[in-house]
Amino acid sequence: MAEYDGKEDREEDEGSDGHQRVLELLQKAQDADHDMREKARETFLFITKSDGQWEPYWWSSNASKPRYTFDMCTPIVDQVAGGLEQASFDIRVNPAGGSATKDVANTFDGMIRNIENISQATTVYNQAARGMVVSGYDGWRVSQKYLNDDSFDQDLVIEKIANFIDRVWFDPSAELQDKSDAKYCFVLHPVDVDEYDRRWPEGGRESVADDRDGDAYFDKNEVILVGEYLYCEEEERELVMINNGHVYEAEEYDKIKDELAAIGVEEVRRRKRMDKKVCSRFFDAKGFLEEKKETVFSTIPVVPVYANYKVFEHKTLYSGVVDKLMDPQRVLNYSMSREIEEGALAPRAKYWMTMAQAAGHEDSLSTLNTNSDPVQFFNVDQENPGAPQQQGGAIVNPGLRTITEAMRGMIGYTAGMFAANMGDNPGLQSGVAINSLQDKGDSATIKYHKALQIAIARTGRLLVKAIPKVYDTPRTVRIMKEDQEYSMAEINAQVFDQQTQEFVTLNDLSAGQYDVICRAGPSFRNRQQETIEAIIEMAKVDPSIIQMGGDILLDNISTPAAEQLSNRKRALMIKQGIIPMDQMTEEELAQQQQEMAQAGQQQAPDPAMVLAQAEQLKAEAEMMRSQIEMQKLQNEQFKLQLEAQKLQTQTIGDQADNQIDAFNAETKRMDTQIKAQQAGATIDNTSAKTMGEELDNQKKMSDMMEEQMMKSRIPFMSEAELISLANS
Fold it and tell me: How many Å apart are CA 442 and CA 420, to the nearest integer?
């Protein structure tokens, strides 16, 4: 990449893409969300910072007093976030129109799972979910990258954006929860100073504003905050629909129009539309750092996750689970710290006695709290009869104790999390009561599942729109299944269809329209456990279920030994005829047919299988008949060619015979004339000699022509004629 000096763009530009305009848009986005971000930062630090659960002023002004933290919020965050981490969020693609097919939709499903797998998207989702539970706001982005340094093939990846609260700012006019309607977005990147100088040697070296009033931590790496401006551009495009249902851009179609016409593909109609594309550009406080780059996305590829999302008075509102727990948690910390302080400063309980009672026992009384003597002696004092009495001791402020217990309950009720949800069952309630409390707690936390579900569905739509642009050449891709097994698939491969006599594109990802949903539920492992429990419970009522579904039960037990047992059980069930043929794999069907052929056993075939085999035999017979007819036709053509060749040879032979006869007649005439002249003794000797030589030459030529004629007739002679010729 050529280095971009950015000098021209650092000059003031009044255009929509000018640097000053970009800074104004960033400031506008930060101003609109400043108060919400401050609250989000406070809740994040409340959980993560050592002194975060105290008011800053109280923490600073009471350095000499107890300031203990009794964190009851983090377990609640762990409980809610843990439920999200254990759930399964599965992106599903469905045909929605055009030439979309279920097979291609399944290909999309497998490719998206593979993208999630290579991106470690589960970790990305879980980290963002935890951040959303804490502060109400987090997210990730979808990017396009090369597979490796030596490849021209690109892949889509899902990437976490660290510190989403401080680094991502959306168009404040966007109102959808997934921000798919945003016209622009800013992502701020902290770049090491040395790295900045290497990438942008002509840059201004001045950070953009991050809208943070202060720092919670110090001793950090020195960085320059660089902005990335992601924005949508619109341009008019012309679309062309062809007679096979595919849609091309007019510019692309016009280049291959002649080639498509040669195979019968023609234009049906055209229309114009406004097309969106997302562009990216880096900048600092002084100017642009790079040229504009076009992406494969049509909407902003940054995905936010909002909890408790609302739009009120044209303002985006959101909050996490910690927001409303901060006050009771701080009161709890204060009351328990005061309770501990007062208990520590209160005088200890003491024995009260007179001097006469203590006389002579001073040594044992001075070690009353440390010695192990079984009794303590004292003197009887007539003026103060009775034994010495213990009085005083620490008296805990009952008001503080009441406040502490009240705040404990308040935290649980505010979060909507009860003892049963937290795994605590102090009252030893019945199972029905525990399930009822758990359901009540789940109702309070289901909104966090819905928030993550919306964000992951948005990710799926981004991928479905971008995949045809990134994976636009014939290539082999990995298709990931739900159980993490995988297979390979060919996409965009051109295959000639013998029936239609047209080229067909296998797994054409650009054809048709598809919609995306995100299905949330228990994880695959939990569903396996539920399957095991359900089969066992049903088997208690109907024991034959184990016999009919033993292989299914073993398949859902995640151990290597269970897999081996499942294979053995399934093989036995196939021999017993328990598994229907339509549920067998191709390998199992082939194995079964081979065993039947070897044993000579004939079992009643499946009617559908018999019909399929009959159709196959019929097709093979038709093909063989066509081949025989074609062979006959070729033989007839060869026979006609031989007859024509023979006729031509016969004609040539007849012409040669005529020429020989004419030559013999001429020879006889000349011989007669010579004899006559000799008889008359009038022929000159020299002339006679010359004529004789000429006659011999003609005789030789005649013999040569006769020999050639014989050779040309040899291929068409019968066996008898060949024998006669050989004898002669």
Answer: 11
Q: How far apart are CA 173 and CA 177, in angstroms?
A: 12
Residue 614: the pLDDT is 63
**What is the spatial distance between Cα 530 and Cα 534, in angstroms, rounded to a whole number?**
6
Cβ-based neighbour number of residue 526 at 10 Å: 13
Cα–Cα dist 36/320, whole Å: 11
In angstroms, the CA 75 to CA 54 distance is 18
Dihedral angle over CA of 675, 676, 680, 682, nearest 10 = -80
Dihedral Cα 558, 563, 566, 570, nearest 10 deg: 130
Tokens of 425: 């069952």
CA-CA distance, 322 to 317, in Å (whole number)? 15
Single pTM value for the model: 0.65
> Is the pLDDT score of 41 beyond 90?
yes
Contacts of 571-576 with CB under 8 Å at 24 or more apart are none
Pair of tokens at residue 658: 């005529």
Q: What helix, strand, coil percent values describe the chain, rounded to 5?
A: 50, 20, 30
Q: Cβ(160)–Cβ(152) under 8 Å?
A: no
| CA distances in angstroms from 124 to 111, 162, 264, 411, 452, listed in the order given | 18, 10, 48, 29, 12
Amino acid (one-letter) located at 110: G
Q: How many CA atoms lie within 13 A of 48 on its CB side?
A: 13
User: Is the distance from CB of 322 to CB of 47 less than 8 angstroms?
Assistant: yes
**Cβ distance 228 to 188 under 8 Å?**
yes
Please list the alpha-helical segments (H only) found in 306-388: 326-345, 355-358, 362-366
> Which residues does 570 contact at the CB level (< 8 Å), separation at least 6?
551, 579
What kind and span of H or E run contains 506?
Answer: strand 502-506
Taking each helix axis as running N to C, give the angle between helix 34-48 and helix 19-32, from 0 to 180 degrees, rounded to the nearest 10: 60
**Are 226 and 188 spatial neighbours (Cβ–Cβ below 8 Å)?**
yes
**Helix, strand or coil, per DSSP, at residue 403:** helix
119-153 CB burial, b ≥16 within 10 A, e <16: bebeebbbbbbbbbbbbbbbbbbbbeeeeeeeeee
* CB distance 310 to 318 below 8 Å: yes
390 close to 396: Cβ distance less than 8 angstroms: no
Length of the chain as a residue count: 728
User: What's the rounded Cα separation, in Å, for the pair 156 and 469?
Assistant: 10
Per-residue pLDDT tens for 452-489? 999 999 999 999 999 988 887 777 788 887 767 778 87
Give Cβ neighbours of residue 298 (< 8 Å, ≥ 6 apart).
232, 275, 276, 277, 278, 465
Number of other residues whose CB lies within 10 A of the CB of residue 406 = 14
Q: Quick one: CA torsion of 165, 167, 168, 172, rounded to 10 degrees?
A: 80
Q: How far apart are CA 74 and CA 320, in angstroms?
A: 13
Higher pLDDT, 110 or 428: 110
Instruction: Give me the DSSP letters along 593-658.
Output: HHHHHHHT------HHHHHHHHHHHHHHHHHHHHHHHHHHHHHHHHHHHHHHHHHHHHHHHHHHHH
Task: Kindly list the distances between the CA atom of residue 371 and the CA atoms of 271, 300, 364, 376, in Å, as whole numbers in the listed order.
Answer: 101, 77, 8, 10
Task: Give, in degrees to the nearest 5, the angle at Cα 81 between 79 and 83.
Answer: 70
pLDDT tens per residue across span 705-720: 666 666 555 555 555 5
Question: Residue 706, SS3?
Answer: helix
DSSP state of 416: T
